[in-house]
Amino acid sequence: MKIYLNESLSAQERAEALVNEMTVEEAASQLRYDAPAVERLGIPAYNWWNEGIHGLARSGVATMFPQAIGLAAMFDTDLVFKVADITSTEARAKYNEYSKRDDRDIYKGLTLWAPNINIFRDPRWGRGHETYGEDPYLTAECGKAYVKGLQGSGKVLKTAACAKHFAVHSGPEAVRHEFNAEVSWKDLEETYLYAFEELVKKAKVEGVMGAYNRVNGEPSCASEFLMGKLDKWGFDGYFVSDCWAIRDFHEHHMVTSSPVESAAMALKAGCNVNCGCTYVHLLSALDKGLVTEDEIRASCVALMRTRIRLGMFDKSTEYDNIPYKVVSCPEHKEVSYQCAVKSMVLLKNKGILPLDKKSISTIAVIGPNADSRAALEGNYNGTADRYVTFLDGIEDAFDGRVIYAEGCHLYKDRVSGLAQAGDRYAEAEAAAANSDVVILCVGLDATIEGEEGDTGNEFSSGDKNDLRLPESQRELIKRVAKIGKPMIVVCAAGSSINIEHDCDALIHAWYPGSEGGKAIADIIFGKVSPSGKLPVTFYNSADKLPCFTDYAMSDRTYRYTRDNILYPFGYGLTYGDVVVTSLSYDDGKVNVEVENNGADTCDVIELYIKSHCDNAPAYPVLCGFKRIFVKKGEKLDVEIEVLDKAFTTVSDIGERKQFAKEFTLYVGTHQPDELSCQLSGTNCMSIEIER
Questions:
Q1: Catalytic: 655?
Q2: pTM of the prediction?
Q3: Which CATH code is given to the segment(s) 3-62+106-320?
Q4: Active site residue 555
């Protein structure tokens, strides 16, 4: 038996033995993302590139969950874990079938480049909806749950997760290939590296992907500082470049002068696999003496180690018999539905919700996102075998008449190219006039907030210019509002939006996945209570934000600003009335009693801490949360663990430790800020702690 086939040996020992049997040419070939077969050694071709941030992506049909920002809005790590577990189950089911048919193409493998744990520091960033929001702690907790769900707890990895994009990466998209993110030691430790460290140390994430940008002058995919952090944290997985990022070294960052030099720089720094084509120059780099054979082999060992950990060279694995029929099965779709319900955030309700079906006979469903599949998908998505749009869900749930009108194009001034501008406004006005209530479905989709090169928003390369709806939709809202009917606005978008209208109710639905229409209907008609919380701050205007290219955290996010806030981080209404009635702290545990004076509902108990020292963020920061279900009139005891790390702060030189001796802990269903208390009608409780 070949040594690398001996399952009693460690993955490291097997990988070393396998690479020892390769020629240097063969070893170098395995450092490409589209690694060819080495037939004489029985190594099949393998494509490292697969996606799965909210369900298996880009490989045909799969269960489609809410976009990652919506998963964060659930404040429910157990459900995030379940989403990832289902994603990996479906990835294995497809991999099993693809492998039987010798299909080794892109998006067919077991290395899922997820989750995206960048910090959504600026609401203009087009890719922010791929992340878990603006808070490092929430991002880390969701990210760890997702990694554990993807990787499983079996003898071999179920799939290999990958934390991306390392690091300090959050726009602007238009300049990402040449941009140098300049960031302080404090912000690095406190904000930008926090989640990556947690995923490496606590979740044992198997992969890390480097970013396009430079960080304080060093290309992220060849950064001595960043690679040093991974070593310090004990990372022993594989490192992959973002796609074609190494080419940027010589074409945009100008830190090298040729592809050969770029390949050498990345390899020597510790980049094991190149998503792109620059590593085809590795043998030339070897010939020129820019890299050594040992360096090529060391990277190949890291990659073979991951493939061995996935069981690719074992006789069999516990996942080989996962049947293809689990893909997009009813049980998985039910989880998607639960996620959609728990992710949607009720931002405003003047008493109109939940709608009483018996009191109305006709509903007008209006807007460019009413019957849009794209409004359900987000980006980096799979294909659902059935989509329930907002219109579909409302029609299915309501026995009366539903009148539909598109109203306008998502962002153009007309729907029909041959028509005059505003060609659908009159139809929308007529629909509203002939209804008892209007449900107006507006927002964005991934064609106008997303990744550079993947969108039609050519003027901003995926980023938003402002926080407003497109002009076509702003005009639609004005016209429909003038009709004077009660109006519920449903906004599908992956980021902060100011609809600039005082409607009767406002629900932010994110990109809620294939079951989004059923979820919105059940919330509107009161079958379930909304219970999502904002994982990002909603601002009034982009004009008052810091410069997009400024990576300093000063005046950014709920931790450092109270200005220009429309809806605060952590805020979201329910149909219940959950209040905290008692609070105590002992030995790392917070115990609270809550009482629900309203309808049955889920809610989230949020815990914030303020360290009383000069190094602390300006305002209390999230340090714990728990999703609960409370019936009307019920009292519930809730325990939340507070990690030791919550009592640490970061100095200006990037040192994290406990500086303070006195702390204030706040508990409620939202932040302990004045606006959250005003909007929700409830206050937080607090307790002083000496430690």
A1: no
A2: 0.98
A3: 3.20.20.300
A4: no
